[in-house]
Amino acid sequence: DKNWKARFVWAEEDVRRTRITWEELESLNWFFNFTPQAGGRRRETLQKCQFSQGFLFLSQYLPMPYRLEVTENVQYLRIYHFPPHRIQRIADSGEWLITNDNVTFCSCDDDETLTYRERGFQ
């Protein structure tokens, strides 16, 4: 009974965490889409992507180097020469959201279930 409670408390605390680790970034399942203002067309342009060995892999693009950084206590993902991407947590699902004005990345569970629907994502 105590183990269940300890796991529940750990999960509740973990979902409030606002900084992703490099290991999480590279091990989670991710989807990518452009925002509508950047040409995103919901499910039509939605695609899986992968962060691996310091590179972002997106269909139809060369691998792009990335790095995590913290500025003024806010975590950002820097991908190649693009504007910084802010990293946030989705309160309801605990999934990670990485955004700038042009793109959105969203983590998902092992079954690739996407619940995020804002910013023209899907």
Helix/strand layout:
Elements: H1 2-15, H2 22-27, E1 29-34, E2 47-52, E3 55-58, E4 64-71, E5 74-79, E6 85-89, E7 96-99, E8 103-108
Antiparallel strand pairs: 1-2, 1-8, 2-3, 3-4, 4-5, 5-6, 6-7, 7-8
Fold and architecture overview:
With 122 residues, the protein is of the alpha+beta class. Helix content is 16%, strand content 37%. It has an eight-stranded antiparallel beta barrel with strand order 1-2-3-4-5-6-7-8. The chain has two helices and eight strands, in the order H-H-E-E-E-E-E-E-E-E. The protein is globular. The longest helix is centred in the first third of the chain and has 14 residues, at 2-15. The relative contact order is 0.21. Strand 4 (64-71) and strand 5 form a beta hairpin.
* Relative strand content: 35-45%
Counted beta strands: 8
Helix content: 10-25%
Give the biggest sheet.
Answer: 8 strands, antiparallel, barrel
Q: Would you list the SSEs in sequence order as H and E?
A: HHEEEEEEEE
- Rg calc: 15 Å
What is the mean pLDDT?
Answer: 92
- The separation of the N and C termini measures 40 Å
Low-pLDDT windows of residues: none
Helical stretch tally: 2
The order of strands across the largest sheet is 1-2-3-4-5-6-7-8
Q: What gross morphology would you assign?
A: globular
Structural class: alpha+beta
Key words describing this protein structure:
globular; 2 helices; 122 residues; 8-stranded antiparallel β-barrel; alpha+beta; 8 strands
In short:
This protein has 122 residues and is α+β, with helices and mostly antiparallel strands. It is built from two helices and eight strands; from the N terminus they run H-H-E-E-E-E-E-E-E-E.
